[in-house]
Design a protein that fits this description.
Blueprint lengths: L4 H10 L3 H13 L6 H10 L1 H17 L2 H13 L2 H14 L3 H11 L5 H8 L10 H11 L3 H12 L10 H21 L3 H12 L4 H5 L7 H17 L3 H15 L1
Amino acid sequence: MEFNFTNTLKELNKEYSEEKASEVIEDLLYNPTDLSDEDHDIVDSLGDKFLRIAAQIFVEDLAYDFNTLVNYWEAFIGQLTEEQSQNLLNFGIEQTDVDFVEDFIIGYRKFYSNPNESITFFNKLNEDELYEIKFFKARCYEVLEDYEKAIETYKSYLDSPYFKVDENLEQASVNSFYINHTIASLYTKLKQYENANIYFDKILGEMDFNDYLDNFDASTNQEIKVFLMDYVETLEQLGKHNKANEVVEKIRTFFS
């Protein structure tokens, strides 16, 4: 049965308990959902108590395993309104007595307003122990349009020893799939088309186009289209005009 977050929130609003709130948050973490305006309104009506519970789980997860942020929490926080996400992060700072968690949350909270300051806080953390920091620093460099540094840092993240362990290979494959999209497009922005093509090939070279599209939902269609147009630009610049035309035709068919 498909997870219905709106109905779940409504039930929680009718009969609230911390235990039920924790279950709702866990459900949303593991069933990523595009929140509607109605969902945001219900979260507002629940007040600080709901976001404080979310913040409590958030800081506990970060203290235990930072990888939960990359894989689950970022999507959760990103679906909240800006005010809700800032409140959650502020509550997280209040609730933690772990220095590295506090430094991270402060840096993460500042990402959209001052990515340079985010990097300052992220640099306080040990990347050898908290390799996920590289991912967030790379995002900061990307926003700052320091694309060379962003690419270097994304690559360093993917090359972390964590992803070399057999039990983590599946997660490594998923992370590589999505981050290689970013690296390919950043190389296109830099007009380094040979390098860009290497990463486009890693993603699209051996995958059927429809199988590729199955990795995304409708909400990401525009992002996919931008990525594919970067691919077309790369192919054209490398003189691969027939292949470029094939991709253009697929784009027209899918996005018509």
